[in-house]
Amino acid sequence: xxxxxxxxxxVSPNASNDxxxxxxxxxxxxxxxxxxxxxxxxxxxxxxxxxxxxxYEQIMKDRENGGNSSNSNxxxxxxxxxxxxGTESPELNNxxxxxxxxxxxxALNLLSSIGQRSARWxxxxxxxxxxxxxxxxxxxxAQQAVNMEPNNTEYVRLLNQVQWSGQKYxxxxxxxxxxxxxxxxxxxxxxxxxxxxxxMGGDLCSCF
Amino acid sequence: xxxxxxxxxxxxxxxxxYKYKAYYCGLCKTLKDKYGRFGxxxxxxxMTFLILLLTSLYESDTIQSLDHCVIHPVKKHDTLTNExxxxxxxxxxxxxxxxxxxxxxxxxxxxxxxxAKVLKKSVNKIIxxxxxxxxxxxECLNRLVECEKRNETEIDIVSRCFGxxxxxxxxxxxxxxxxxxxxxGFFLGKFIYILDAYDDIEKDKKHHSYNPLIARYDTPNYxxxxxxxxxxxxADCTIEFEKLPCLQDIDIxxxxxxxxxxxxxxxxxxxxxxxxxxxxxxxxx
Lengths: 208, 285
Fold this sequence. Notes:
Largest sheet of chain B: 2 strands, antiparallel
Shape of chain B: globular
Strand content of chain A: under 5%
Number of strands of chain B: 2
Strand content of chain B: under 5%
Largest interface: A-B, 31 and 32 residues
Helix content of chain A: 55-70%
Largest sheet of chain A: none
Structural class of chain A: mainly alpha
Helix content of chain B: over 70%
Distance between the termini of chain A: 34 Å
Number of strands of chain A: 0
Order of helices and strands of chain A: HHHHHHHHH
Distance between the termini of chain B: 42 Å
Number of helices of chain A: 9
Oligomer: heterodimer
């Protein structure tokens, strides 16, 4: 992890995605190993080149998670620290462990062998399917988990996440038609705020 | 292939539209130069998108030239070609080849077998150069045939065969961008497969052919559900696309991913509604 990836690329944390891409391109061209063949600075340039690459990837990953790396739930791992280990069956505990190590196919295999389908089963199945690229099934099972336990914030959060990506895509589409590409943070932030409000029955922006 | 991944012309700048066309003509010319008239017939818009994407990502040196083409023999056309065009042309031929073999095994389509024979020699060379991609194409198409045989209705399971195939083709090089390219190809492949099923549903129903959407077809929210599913695919596809440092031709790429891919879907719905309208009209008369 780079402490401040933005400073490596020489951009402000408020920079748009396209500005970050531009900075990345310029710097990776500048430090590209091909430009330093037989040059005493080759090692230094290579190190810098790698750092630029790493910084770029880190920023993109952070931004995917809504600009908050501690809230990283895009990789389809279970969120929160509690896995209800006290109340959960040993099989579901094993599923939890597979999910944490991103072994989605094994999680799916194990899930299919469990007869009793609780809300948690559907929640884990949604995560495993999402990780394995079965996004239709993931959405269905996320919905099912929420239907069974509407007050579980973990389940609601997953369902919102699934629905949010579709809405964000639609939103970008409409922005596109206006000739303006708003994949910047302001939009995302508004989104999050709106989703949160909606969770509690309110609505910040009726247009979302 | 299908031609679903195209630009949405009304929203595209003229200069971008001509550039897009030049890439398309470049692929056409490369197919013809490398694989003759038959190779040229395999041309499609879907693969032009892959050229644009990889060219933008790797910023490959591109050659611009003026050429005559079969469709427009008199007027000269701008063509853009580079190493990616060569790669995509090869992948297009391999894909066509395995597809024709499938057709032969499946329906004993003699035209397909003849076509496959014409391509055999070229394909052997492509297999040697790109074993990873070719093995995956063969494996995925076989799995697709299996799914169709057992009448698989789980949309994720069927469509992932084509998703995985595309995913492998999108990985031009094994490097830092592999993971994102894989996901872009995967979800775009699923999108193409599902849209193709959506496009064919009436025909398939009439002929009692396999179609993964048939179970949903008679449900009240069929169109809306399909739109939701397709949107999900493009949402996951574009999340990964936006992570790539693509700047070159970005307006064309976004035009395709956010608007162009819906052109066919909208057209299908329009035609269906028209048909429904005329049916109602005749009833009221």
